[in-house]
Amino acid sequence: MLVLVVDSSTPAVTAALAEIAADGVTLRAERRTVDARAHGELLAPQVAAVLAEVGARPADLGAIVAGLGPGPFTGLRVGLVTAATMGQVLGVPTYGVCSLDAVGHPAAAGEPVLAASDARRREVYWAVYDGAGERIAGPDVDVPALVAERARDLGATAMVGDGAHRYADVLGLPLREEPRYPSAAALAGLAAERILTAAPGERLTPLYLRRPDAVAATARKSVLP
After folding, report:
1. 15 shares its domain with 119
2. Which domain holds residue 73?
3. Which residues form the Gcp-like domain (predicted)?
4. Which residue(s) pair with 93 in the sheet?
5. Going along 43-191, which residue ranges are E strands?
6. For each successive 10 residues of the chain (225 residues), what is the average pLDDT?
């Protein structure tokens, strides 16, 4: 089955096509651009590009997988709105995956790891994974010093992700270079069982973890002097 994978939870805007079968997941095309300010401009052209690369049409898609975050409000909603809209128009199921899982799960090679992405405001989104890649804490958002303490308490012996790169000195664990951003192959793999068993499609609920910076005014201001 041909599946579209999108993620916009980090500065890396990702679109990919994966072939999902009983014997595994094959990534057939991928586009990734790291630009924290251009999610809306980049994602749709990238979706079109991966479809064109394999000579497919939107109607050829059997499902859509989207990274649910956590991530900043503006960027994250671009991917989720795109996935939800395409799923509704095409009549195909949508499946969500925690974006941190697509960083921490493939990085956990027999030892507990901390996965962290940049949450701005000098904070990180984080989760901890055991040696088998199962999430044992998080996702959550905290200042790096508190995350370092929690990760040590949970036995993490390495760290991965863009947030780990940015705050390596505070987090204080051995840093793995990759994956720095959510892996399209991991996102597809983490949704594969649901897709292959024809599980009902899911509402794509974003993991914002905190309120957006912009809030509605609570009172009208007078325009008179």
Report:
1. no
2. 2-99+182-196
3. 36-148
4. none
5. 63-67, 94-97, 113-120, 123-129, 135-142, 158-160
6. 98 98 97 94 97 98 98 94 98 98 95 96 97 97 98 97 98 97 97 97 93 49 47
